[in-house]
Amino acid sequence: MKIMILSTGDELLKGQICDTNAAWMAAELVQLGQQVSRVVVVGDDLPDLVAGIREGLAHYDFTLVGGGLGPTVDDLTAQAAAEALQVPLVHDAKAEAIVRARFAVSGRPMPEINLKQALLPQGAQAIKNPNGTAPGFWVQRGDHRAVFMPGVPRELKSMFGRVVPGWLPQPAAPHQAVFQFLGIGESVAQEQLAALLPPGAPIRVSFRASSPELTLTLSSPDAVALAALEPQVAEMLRTGLFARSRVGLPAVVVALLREKGLRLAVAESCSGGLLGSVLTDIPGASEVFTGGIIAYDNEVKMRLLGVPASDLERFGAVSETVARTMAQGVRQRLDSDLGVGITGIAGPDGGTPEKPVGTVHIALATKDHIIHRQCAFRGYNRTAVKRVAAWTALKMIYDAIGSHMP
Length: 406
Fold this sequence. Notes:
Mean pLDDT: 93
Radius of gyration: 26 Å
CATH class of the largest domain: Alpha Beta
Strand content: 15-25%
Distance between the termini: 52 Å
Number of strands: 17
Number of helices: 14
Shape: globular
CATH superfamily of the largest domain: MoaB/Mog-like domain
Oligomer: single chain
Helix content: 25-40%
Largest sheet: 6 strands, mixed
């Protein structure tokens, strides 16, 4: 089946937001045994929308359209669909009932402008939207079908899940193996992987980079061939591997801490609280995360974490000695099993020949000992230094929990 995704909105073309809807739908379709052939993004421009919808209906079995179903003047998708089909826009009683019901549930009066959302191409079938005011709809031209959904992600996802799978054929989904790893570049992984794959092997390789994490997915209709390859790939990636699923490193670390019955506290300087933030994004983190101290100023390092002024004077705030004291200090003060200390130079200023921008010291402390790592994140901007420092700390926790730490 040939599938096209059409996303609409000036904010997408201007880079104000990313097209997460298309990425999400493509991933869902893979899980349903389908592959997207084309993704198109157009702005709030009627001729471009008409052209995109006509392309989908002419050349693809199934077209998924997201966005442009609201009540304002820049919401043009229904009008564009009518022009693409060469039919008039007509009032749809079912669509109006959907809109009115949504306002009734919210207890708000319905502005007259929202009646625009009840205008659909003649022959279109309205789709209920339990999460918003904009009804979806679908149209058919011969063997080609197009479904139109709101652009608000939670509304689109809900509508997609309720209607799209039932319209798709159900081929046997390929067997898949997923590897999540850190600290290995995409090109290096590809080079190493090529040596493992025999010529003509029925294995599809795909990478998804979400810096600094990298996801490798191997797909094959041949379960035996894939099973034979999996342990070799896991061994190849062993230094960076942290999951065999699409779960991110923060969630993996929270799960491991819970499994081991350990509690963690963090002291952050250059990462500015990012490590604590990504950990508390995970449901259930309160069971294992005690808290954090953002010790950006040296006075805070001394007063709240017990860093001696003499160490700051002798070694500097960005040093192994200070990172170790921060880790042990936050562990003791917040009564935790583990403590992390992060201190570094995120840039763009502040570097020296001895300590250039990107120099970061990370320490992980238990009651009995401390692990330290000095990092050189060269070529990263300020935001990237903070992120990769936080993820490096997460990987240190992951490695330590699975090895010699209790």
